[in-house]
Amino acid sequence: MSTMRKAVLLVVLLIASTIPAFVSADDEPVRQRSSMTEFTWTGNATSVQVSGEWDDWEQISDLTESEGVWSISLDLEPGMYCYKLIVDSAWIFDPAEPYRGYCDDFENSIVRVPDTSQPMFTHTIVDDLLTVLWHAGSGGGAPDSTPLALATGLWDESNWSWSLDLSTLPDGKNTLHITGEDVDGNVAEDLLLPFWNGEMSDFVWEDALIYMIMTDRFVNGDSSNDGESTNAAQGADWLGGDFAGVTQMIQSGYFTDLGVNALWLTPFNAAANGTGLASDGQHAVSAYHGYWPTAAREVDARLGTADELHTLIDAAHDAGIRVMGDFVINHVHEDHPYFSEHPDWFNEGCLCGEANCDWTEHRLDCLFRPYMPDVNWKVRNASEQFIEDVMWWMETFDLDGGRLDAVKHVDDLAITNLAVRINERFETAGTDYYLKGETAMGWAGHSVENNANEYGTINRYIGPNGLDGQADFVLYHAVVDNVFTTGNMDYQHLDYWTARSQDQYVADATMVPFVGSHDVPRFTSRADPGTADEWNQWVEDGLPGQPGTDDPYIAALHAYTWLLSTPGAAAIYQGDEYGEYGGADPDNRHMFRNDSQLTANEISLRENISAIGLLRQQSEALRQGTYASLFNATDTIAWSMTTETNQAVIAMNRGTTPATFDLDLEWFANDSLSEIYMDQQNQFTLPANGVAIFLQPEPVIIVPDNDPDGHCLILDNLTVNQTMFVTLDLVNICEKEIHYPGVNATADHPLVSGFSGFNEWYYMIFPDTSYNHSWQLYLNESIPNGTNVTLTFEATILNCGMDGSWHDCPNSTLQHTFTVIWPENGTNDTVPEPEPEPEPEPEPEPEPEPEPEPEPSTMDYWAHAELGRPGYLNVTLEAQFMDPDVTVTVEYRVRHDLVIDDEPHMTDLGGDDIPMISGAITFNQTFEVEIDNGAGSYCVRIYLRLPDGDWIRPSQNYPGALSCVGVTESHWDNVPDVSEPEPEPEPEPEPQCIEGETRPADDGCNDCVCGSGEWACTEMACPSIDDDDSSTTSAGGMTTSQMVRIVLGVLTLIGSIFLLTLLIRGRSQDDEEKFA
């Protein structure tokens, strides 16, 4: 069998293994779709009725009331029908049904009746557990197999359901597409479940920093797809940007470094070839921007392929970046097949802006250009087709949201129906798909009343069944036009209109503030005092060049500091981050420039905006905070962004001299962007043109006795026996692992030894687990009799104090007090204090019972370290592993813990592996470990590991696997030179007598006196008190020792006589010479 056939067979077997034993087709269905369609209305009324298109409006059916709810169920054929409710004779939209449509030029509610002969899926998600239910169609058939998307889930035959733990799927974006059919071959309505796992799942669209890309003008990543020149006017032709270029920039980290987490790309769809005349009727422009679509579901080849678009979106998702499509729903290009095949789908209106064709009055039927037919959303077939096309792009390319072009130029139902369909299809797993609208409005004056129409028109399309937010045009024209670019208005004006954007829009709307866009001249050109060409479009009129002063870049820094630190999903138009220059469309759409093409001012601006973007990404207050004014004046402003847990303060000074701010805050901090210092009175000074962002420091948690996690630790089972052997249990009572816990054991008397002097702690302990600790204490004999000694034991967590101190979280504390009583024989016979309960006489503590043998199939291991000879630890490792079918490795590591400047320092000194050992064994090994890192705590940890590398958890009541011992510098005193070992000294002989003692004549010994611990006799040797030799005697009854002493004495006497003779002879010779 070939490898390919083996692979195919394996796939078949794997798929087959996922097919449960389903019930037969003859069994009763567990769950079956109803063929009835229910209409309801809630409220007080005399009568409620319904009438609709399903019978040509001939019947009016009465709803019945029960507890204030009116309802009726009708058996309708599959399809879409206009209908209205009739409440007390008034024909109204159904408030429970947001979907709308036109019948005979009248707008109605729309009911969508499904084909109930098809099976369907429904689902719930609770705590990441997905449950999918099968609903049989009218035929009652069971599912014929498990959907591939649920292959790793569990099938419940009794309930016709599958369950799947979504948390087991990869981090990032996951999209489950659940499809299937019943045993009779009826295809089920599919179910789509898009969701994010991991850190990226916490994203909300308020967090978004959106980067708008005009794809053809961004980066040319593949020149092979560049289109031919259309001979359009300068700046209005295709320039070569493509999907490959965007992908390269994603993978380079460019957007991540800016703090960008969402991309908005101009339309992907095939756009018109050739050119069309611009609004001036003179200049030819091409469709490089994508807003002249010529195909409904085709990628423009000049941007790349469908596969390259998939690659772009996958790369974005891998980087935690959402991608928004741009959908043209108001018009098509005249070359679009919809226009030639369905001319009735389009309006035959006037040209917008011409005489008798006002942009507002004819907003729904006028044409933007003669070659751009305007879609008539009142035609139901057209409406449904354009919605289906948007849904296709969203689903096929796994998009995360969309921007809708020219919102106010389409019927309201275009927005409502599209939003309803997107919510139904894509928000099934709780992930919000963001719909942003473009409703271009202005700023009509200095009061809210003057701008009521502006706010009202934008609000019209926002809501639960509409857009999530829109571009904030009112704010743009109020502050970018009047404050940042021209300087006509002061920072009080900026503060006022920023605040209005917080209270004039629909509640819960996520608006999109912006500083620049593809529809207006570039910001730096508008802020450049050295140009008057910023509104020019064409080269012959004169176009703005690179600014020659710092002013535009200073203004841009202020504008983006404001933009990125006020509420909303802020948007950056490509190139604005470095201050791209340019006039009106198309000169505001220059090709993106890389670092090699940027000036020092441009690089500096981008670096500053990147810093603010990253700060925004890190600070919840900057992203989601509530705006509040702190101070405003002509050239200075300060505001706060506040959440329930944190706050940020932003300040700007556009003046030419330093400005001092004096704020009223409950905290102080230094500027996160530059070296601006706020003192404890909240005063700080900004230099000329300066900006600052102050982030409230993370709250200082005053740790109560039981936090953090301290409440999980208790001490139990303290015993102290007659020999001063101490044991107790450290118990984790919580259902979670605790990191760096331990026991701090101390005695209140300096002459009690045996505690290590260091907190004996673990890297981690398991939930609901006890860890035994033991110490052998020693009492110095100089402790006065009757002294009370108290032993204190604290359950602690390493480095959890509010000031970062090492052991500062005691929770459970046990104490034991005893009295030192020295008996007459000089041995320590300490009597422990009695328990607090009154007892006639305290019973002595029993000796600790030995650990019980572990039950079969348990896994126990422990380490014990104690001081050995100088420079060494004695280490004992023990393990019991009662599983004969598993082989394990015993490993140990040694580390050195030291406190330097109140901070813990840990050094791994290495370790070793004990060769593989079979299961069902008891392992015990003792050895020496050399230590030479100096004083501190030395800890030994034992591990049992399986062949796959996983380490084995010990049983619940076995001692801990970590043992620590405190070592002082004196431990290294008299460490022998390992190169020349010193010989062991011979033992000193025991004294035989007391110095100066005399002994009477006995056994032939006369005048015996004790000297240097031995008997010395003047006449002959006396018997030696030598237990070792007392049993061995020579002839004559003397011991061997006595005979040796006699011989030595005789030799000594002879030597003395010989020396005395030589001395006398020498003196005689001297005397002879002297008298000669």
Entry keywords:
1076 residues, alpha+beta, Immunoglobulin-like
Description:
The chain is 18% helix and 28% strand. It has 15 helices and 54 strands. Helix 2 packs parallel to helix 4, helix 6 packs parallel to helix 7 and helix 12 packs parallel to helix 13. It is globular. The relative contact order is 0.04. The model is unreliable at 1-22, 700-707, 801-808, 825-858, 955-959, 977-983, 1019-1041 and 1067-1076 (pLDDT under 50).
Outline the fold blueprint.
Blueprint: H1 3-17, E1 36-42, E2 48-52, E3 61-62, E4 64-66, E5 69-75, E6 79-87, E7 90-92, E8 100-103, E9 106-113, E10 120-126, E11 129-135, E12 154-156, E13 161-165, E14 172-178, E15 191-197, E16 209-213, H2 243-252, H3 254-258, E17 262-265, E18 276-277, E19 284-285, H4 306-318, E20 322-327, H5 337-341, E21 346-347, E22 374-375, H6 380-396, E23 401-404, H7 412-426, E24 434-437, H8 452-459, E25 469-470, H9 473-485, H10 491-503, H11 523-526, H12 551-563, E26 570-573, H13 600-618, H14 620-624, E27 626-632, E28 636-642, E29 647-653, E30 659-662, E31 683-686, E32 691-695, E33 713-720, E34 725-732, E35 738-739, E36 741-747, E37 752-753, E38 760-761, E39 764-765, E40 769-776, E41 778-779, E42 788-797, E43 813-819, E44 831-832, E45 859-867, E46 872-881, E47 887-900, E48 903-918, E49 921-930, E50 936-945, E51 962-967, E52 998-999, E53 1008-1011, E54 1014-1017, H15 1040-1075
Parallel strand pairs: 16-17, 16-26, 17-20, 20-23, 23-24, 24-25
Antiparallel strand pairs: 1-5, 2-3, 2-6, 4-5, 6-7, 6-9, 8-9, 10-11, 11-13, 12-13, 14-15, 18-19, 21-22, 27-28, 28-29, 29-32, 30-31, 33-34, 34-40, 35-39, 36-38, 36-42, 37-41, 42-43, 43-44, 45-46, 46-49, 47-48, 47-50, 50-51, 52-53, 53-54
